From TrEMBL:
In the C-terminal section; belongs to the prokaryotic molybdopterin-containing oxidoreductase family. Its cofactor is Mo-bis(molybdopterin guanine dinucleotide); [4Fe-4S] cluster. This is NAD-dependent formate dehydrogenase catalytic subunit /NAD-dependent formate dehydrogenase iron-sulfur protein. InterPro entries: 2Fe-2S_ferredoxin-like_sf, 2Fe-2S_ferredoxin-type, 4Fe4S_Fe-S-bd, 4Fe4S_Fe_S_CS, Asp_de-COase-like_dom_sf, CT_Formate-Dh_H, Formate_Dh-H_N, Formate_DH_asu. Residues 232-289 form the 4Fe-4S Mo/W bis-MGD-type domain.
């Protein structure tokens, strides 16, 4: 019987008296916590309620009647205990300690915390006790470390309280900070006493948030001074990057119209934590390269095509045939669009002129070519309300379902399998529910880079005893926290999971009652699994048969087990089959519908879940209601007051293909998408963008895709508008306006409405909240949610009572969302990838993300901190593969596939499998998607980003 199944035992209480007040608390409660319950505040320096107490600083000592004072943060209450927290003797002890600590502190006017946020806890204690620094002997300096671009280390201000150590270890699970030296020379150290900036520190800033003195502080970004919170305005919002959706607070300097600093905010999911992007990556919005006025392509710049040498394919460090020696026309360092090269091809226009042209040209193409001639790409970076309005515009204004967004490039196959199998494309439990799991599978994902705050909960769970099974072709840092690491060959997931399930069935570890009552098609699944004994699976996957058996037994014997997966599962031509296997693995063992169990595809962008929920998909109206279902379509026709297309629309990849075909898509509206870098086979995308009769791009920067535009509309960043966003947990949260848009830039929902009115739609929305109300009325999953009841932390959906409840954590406790309420098991046969290595292209390329960057880099590469930490493109290569090619670390090389080639630096990496390489896709100067294939999954229509054949060679 697992801990989750054990019967609850009565908790014994003890009664103590603290400063004359009697308090009864559960046995084991510390004096510090008990004192808080009766309103007695005990001063602390080393203690933080988020960490396990250690009693290092002794500032919290109290008199319990014993021979020595007790540290209140670690000493538990005892029945009948008499506690005095502020006797003259106790206060004298604290004053002596404060005086000794102050002796080595920098003067207030030199202290990095006192001169910025002015919340140095030691200085506050000293001031309260009337203790200064006059006449105190000072020790010799222990030095500063300014090597990190955004965090300053002042060892002289350090009091060795170890709060930073515990923040790094216990909260974030990064294990970077420790101590070095002896005696007075003892100081905090990063790794083996390396400079912070060259250590393995991931710059999450958790140590800064924990430090009570000026030892660890934030540096000013872009010369915006860090000031006390009382002098700044606090705006509560949500992080604009990955799907974890961390709650944060922006401290805004209204005098300068800029953000001074950001910090984590309490919320049931993220619990105040942030990563480097959330804490330091917000300054992109203030980039001088922001688009601020509508632009129209000049007549001389037709016929249409790419406008820069980079996007024409003439850059990448290669000289063109007609270039003279020494005249390198390659990509500029930093990898951003060259505005000086592109902007002369556009002229400034008024909003009315630009919007009139957009409406007129799209209407003309629609009239001439019919609804199928129009398509729209929306954005998962925009709010739920903007996603809803965009898909409504394409469907009601142009009569087509040709509307899609980046889910097609990340989790479309996961959604297809989940919708087919359990009737819902959303996760069945939260990332925090890992705390209730005995066993966790993390597969096809590198959450320490892609979802770092979620990964901190995974690492914490492991420390508490949860077993982690990590399954991936790359030995990312997650492997270092795993109990079992399975490094399978790329593209063999189906064979591996079939082998695991074969063994689970053989051992009788299936949940027969759950299968009988809550699933269908088990017998067909079992027949398929019979063909995948561990020995056969081992031959296909390269994983030892005994390891497959170990995984099967560990999973099958778990009382509660959950799967978290990423794009290593979904971005394959067999992505839907991969997800079908995970659904089957959970359901045949009964691991759905209880705490610590379930299916969780970790979402990539901040609002990819919400954009999908809101209907930004070609086959679904909002809330995954099929466009080809008559009753559903009639319901939306009544709500929207117009006839709707009964046919499913084209997906992102199908739209690109359609543009190159006679009678295909001729006009496009792109909102916040950059397919030139994000879509596979860049050469094909370049041809398609050039072939469009009309393209309007709405964005905050001049992207590679915007070079092909006829009209460019300056949009709003995440920080410049109100709206709701739905994270990977199904948590609907409000993002609040922090800054005004620059120049003439407008909020995206306003621009979409302006176009809608010009093509004849009578839209009169006055605010995002009005759009939210209309949207929720059409979405059963969002029922009961209101703009005003989301509160500061948002709400999980479904939610029967959002006024009093945070919402549903675990779904499918009694039935699935399918028509019959059962999980539909779909067997899958292993199929090889579409393109295999050969003598000319012997390596397998895998693409993905880095911690410091996000997608096509248009935001993160304009962030000072993020670009400073990770400025260059690299190909990660196994040492033996590098040695066979005579390549050294840091050497510039060429990577080529059957579709193109790029040049970048080599990074020798023991995390790669022999015969495999990895390239992040953020760097336009080494655009990985010049290499990738555009073969797609037949069900999810997602491209196979995770597998193509390449060669790496010296220049």
């Amino acid at each position: 019987m697992t801990a989750l199944q054990e019967p609850a035992t009565a908790v014994r209480t003890v009664t103590a008296t603290i400063d004359g007040q009697e308090v009864s608390v559960p046995e084991g409660t510390t004096i510090y916590d008990a004192a808080k319950q009766v309103g007695v505040e005990i001063p602390v320096l080393c203690h933080d309620e988020r960490f396990d107490p250690v009693g290092v600083c002794r500032m919290c000592v109290v008199d319990t009647g014993g021979r020595a004072f007790a540290a209140a943060c670690v000493r538990p209450c005892e029945d009948g205990m008499q506690v005095q927290t502020a006797t003259p003797e106790v206060q004298r002890s604290r004053d002596v300690l404060t005086e000794l600590l102050m002796a080595d502190q920098p003067a207030p006017e030199q202290d990095r915390k006192h001169t910025t946020t002015r919340d140095n806890l030691l200085f506050e204690l000293a001031e309260g006790s009337g203790i200064g620094q006059d006449g105190l002997p000072r020790g010799s300096g222990r030095g500063t470390d300014l090597s990190n671009p955004v965090i300053a280390v002042d060892h002289d201000a350090c009091i060795l309280c170890d709060r930073c150590v515990r923040a790094c270890d216990d909260v974030q699970g990064n294990d970077v900070i420790g101590r070095s030296g002896k005696g007075y020379a003892t100081r905090i150290a990063f790794d083996l006493n390396d400079p912070m900036g060259s250590s393995s520190c991931v710059t999450c800033g958790e140590c800064v948030a924990a430090c009570p003195t000026g030892a660890l502080t934030n540096k000013a970004i872009n010369n915006i001074p860090i000031r006390p919170r009382a002098e700044l305005e606090q705006v509560e919002s949500v992080c604009p990057y990955c799907g974890v959706g961390c709650a944060l607070t922006y401290n805004v300097d209204r005098e300068r119209g800029a953000i001074s600093f950001a910090e984590g905010r309490d919320q049931p999911g993220s619990q105040g934590r942030l990563c480097v992007k959330g804490r330091y990556g917000w300054d992109y919005a203030a980039s001088p390269q922001r688009l601020t006025v509508p632009l129209i392509r000049r007549e001389k710049s037709y016929p249409k095509g790419a406008l820069s040498a980079d996007v024409r394919g003439e850059g990448n460090g290669k000289r063109r045939k007609d270039d003279r020696p020494g005249k390198d026309r390659g990509r500029k360092p930093g990898g951003l669009v060259d505005y000086d090269e592109v902007l002369p091809h556009f002229r400034e226009a008024t909003w009315d002129e630009a919007l009139d042209l957009v409406a007129r040209r799209l209407r003309e193409i629609h009239t001439a070519g019919g609804p199928g001639a129009i398509a729209g790409f929306g954005s998962a970076k925009c709010s739920n309300e903007e996603a809803y309005l965009f898909q409504k515009l394409i469907r009601t204004g142009f009569g087509t379902n040709n509307v899609d967004h980046c889910t097609r490039l990340c989790h479309a196959s996961s959604v297809a399998a989940l919708f087919e199998g359990v009737g819902s494309g959303a996760v069945s439990t939260t990332y925090g529910d890992v705390a209730n799991a005995d066993v966790v599978i993390i597969t096809g994902s590198n959450p320490t880079a892609n979802h770092p705050v979620a990964s901190s909960f995974f690492k914490q769970a492991r420390r508490r005893g949860t077993k982690i099974i990590y399954i991936d072709p790359r030995a990312s840092t997650v492997a270092e926290h795993a109990d079992i690491f399975v490094q399978l060959k790329p593209g063999t997931d189906v064979a591996f999971y079939n082998g695991v399930m074969h063994e689970i069935v053989r051992l009788g570890l299936i949940d027969r009652e759950f299968i009988a009552n809550r699933t269908s098609n088990y017998d067909e699944l079992a027949r398929t699994l019979a063909d995948y004994p561990p020995e056969r699976a081992a031959q296909i996957t390269g994983v030892d048969a005994d390891t497959i058996r170990e995984v099967a037994r560990t999973w099958g014997e778990a009382g509660a087990a959950v799967v978290y997966w990423g794009m290593g599962i979904s971005q394959h031509t067999t992505g839907t089959d991969n997800a079908r296997c995970l659904i089957a693995l959970c359901t045949i063992t009964g691991n759905v519908g209880r705490p610590g169990t379930g299916l969780h595809p970790l979402r990539g962008q901040n609002n990819v879940q919400g954009a999908s929920d809101a209907g930004l998909i070609p086959m679904f109206y909002p809330d995954y209601q099929g466009v080809d279902a008559d009753a559903t379509r009639e319901r939306f026709e009544r709500a929207w007051g117009t006839a709707l297309d009964p046919k499913r629309g084209l997906t992102v990849t199908e739209i690109v293909k359609s543009v190159l075909e006679p009678g295909g898509v001729r006009g496009m509206y792109m909102l916040g998408e950059n397919p030139f870098l994000s879509d596979p086979n860049t050469t094909k995308v370049r041809k398609a963008l050039s072939a469009l009769e009309f393209l309007v791009v709405q964005d905050i920067f001049l992207t590679e895709t915007a070079e092909f535009a006829d009209v460019i509309l300056p949009a709003s960043s995440y920080l410049e508008k109100d709206g709701t966003y739905t994270n990977t947990d199904r948590r609907v949260q409000r993002g609040r306006k922090v800054l005004d848009p620059p120049g003439q830039a407008r909020a995206d929902w306003v621009i979409v409405q302006d176009i809608a009115r010009r093509i004849g739609l009578d839209w009169r929305y006055e605010s995002p909240s009005e759009v939210f109300d209309e949207m929720v009325a059409l979405m059963p999953s969002y029922a009961n949610l209101r703009w005003d009841n989301l509160g500061p932390s948002g709400k999980l959906y479904p939610n029967a009572d959002p006024e009093h409840s945070d919402g549903t954590v675990v779904m499918f406790d009694e039935r699935f969302n399918t028509d019959d309420g059962l999980a539909h098991l779909v067997p899958a046969e292993w199929l090889p990838p579409k393109e295999l290595p050969d003598a000319e292209y012997p390596l397998v390329l895998n693409t993905g993300r880095l911690l410091e960057h996000w997608h096509t880099g248009s935001m993160t590469r304009r962030s000072y901190a993020l670009d400073a930490i990770s400025p260059v493109a690299e190909v990660y290569l196994h040492p033996k593969d590098a040695a066979e090619r005579g390549l050294a670390h840091g050497q510039r090389v060429r990577v080529r596939s059957r579709r193109g080639e790029i040049e970048l630096l080599v990074r020798i990496s023991h995390r790669e499998q022999l015969g495999n390489c990895f390239i992040p896709f953020h760097f336009r100067e080494a655009a990985a998607n010049l290499l990738t294939i555009d073969e797609i999954d037949p069900y999810g229509k997602i491209p196979e980003f995770k597998f193509c054949a390449v060669q790496v060679e010296a220049l």
